[in-house]
Amino acid sequence: MPPTIRLALLVNSYLDERYHGVPLARAQNQRIVLRRALDAAFERFDVLLTPTTPRVAARLPEGRLTEVEAMARIVSETVLAAPLNATGHPALAVPSGVDAEGLPTSVQLIGPRWGDRAVLTAGAALEASLDLNLHS
Questions:
Q1: pLDDT tens per residue, the chain (136 residues)?
Q2: Is residue 31 assigned to a domain?
Q3: Which of 1, 61, 93, 108 has the most beta carbons within 10 angstroms of its beta carbon?
Q4: How many distinct structural domains can be found in the chain?
């Protein structure tokens, strides 16, 4: 079993034994709060445009990452996208270009729950308007 999965299972087991599900209940409450906040935003907007990650792409590691480095990288790279997995809002990462060093950048389109079609339509329009010629 990969170390990252083992760590998640160990943390879950510890929290359950030590705190009897209270952290999970609090997280579920926060998920509901976040879902409602996003639902409220979609009363005004069809889709939201956000960064996909808080920074441009990281360079590929030279060698094997330690378990701590791997976990830190997973958390730092998914901090803006992972909450949408909890709220049920569809999201799509669209390439947006490259930075000064040639590393890829992207933006994230977020739609209302069950608004997958709107997100895909907006993503296709954005991709066409950027005309990045990514397939060459």
A1: 887 788 889 988 999 999 998 998 999 999 999 999 999 999 999 999 999 998 887 788 899 988 888 888 887 888 899 999 999 999 999 999 988 888 889 999 999 999 999 999 999 999 999 988 765 4
A2: yes
A3: 108
A4: 1
In a domain, 95, yes or no: yes
Q: If you search the block for the tokens 């729950």, which residue do you land on?
A: 113
Residue 135 counted as domain residue: no
Locate 118 and state its tokens.
Answer: 């709107």
Closest C-alpha to 94, from 60, 58, 47, 46:
47
Q: Which domain holds residue 21?
A: 3-130
- Write out the two tokens for 1: 């079993």
Extract the tokens encoding 21: 């599900």
The pLDDT of residue 135 is: 55
136 belongs to a structural domain:
no
Q: Are 51 and 80 in contact (CB under 8 A)?
A: yes
Cα distance between residue 71 and residue 60, in whole Å: 15
